[in-house]
Design a protein that fits this description.
With 198 residues, this protein is mostly helical. The chain contains 6 helices and no strands.
Length: 198
């Protein structure tokens, strides 16, 4: 799979005349992944998944949410009964439906943000296991052999933290955006002053 991506990207960059730049970039990425170990693939896949969900939510709020709100408010305003207890419950149900749509994937985004540093710690543990294996086989005098395990211990931790920080603030912003939009929807769906118990 990696070779397929490499060959495809190399063919594309050779057409536009940037093949050497792509090869240099690919080698730097490959060296970084080798330096950090296999856990970096998991962190990278989780970060890509998290950002796909973040971009989807941002596109939803930028494009689709207004249409959903307009449709819901129009359905509410088309009702003749907006005073009764039953109408009040219908209003709450309509707001809840929009809330579910607006908060879709937010929990998954927050879980991904929390999981990235944990995967980084997994890389730390596996890297330190490598250090201890080297120490048990070669003794503690071989610093060069221990350096590989130490790099495999620190690089995933750094990558996990960077991946988490890249999504942390935007996930809080999306959560707050959903809360504000639902509150505004509730204000647009006005009720008559009197609530009957019928």
């Amino acid at each position: 799979m990696v070779e397929l991506i490499y060959n495809l990207m190399r063919a594309i960059t050779s057409v536009i005349g940037a093949e050497q730049g792509f090869i240099n970039m690919w080698e730097a990425i490959r060296d970084f992944l080798e330096l950090g170990g296999d856990v970096l693939f998991l962190i990278g896949a989780l970060m890509i998944f998290m950002w796909i969900l973040i971009i989807e939510r941002m596109l939803y709020f930028a494009i689709n949410h207004r249409q959903v709100v307009k449709k819901t408010v129009a359905e509410w305003n088309a009702r003749s009964d907006r005073k009764s207890w039953k109408a009040h419950r219908i209003r709450e149900a309509m707001i809840s439906e929009v809330r579910l749509i607006a908060q879709q994937y937010l929990g998954l985004i927050q879980a991904s943000v929390a999981l990235c540093p944990l995967l980084g710690l997994l890389g730390t543990v596996t890297g330190m296991v490598g250090v201890f294996e080297v120490m048990s086989i070669l003794g503690s005098g071989n610093a060069r052999a221990m350096a590989d395990g130490i790099s495999k211990a620190t690089v995933p931790t750094m990558c996990g933290m960077v991946a988490a920080l890249s999504g942390l603030f935007i996930s809080f912003w999306l959560q707050r955006k959903a809360q504000i939009e639902i509150q505004l929807l509730g204000e647009h769906m006005t009720m008559e002053s009197r609530i009957d118990q019928s």
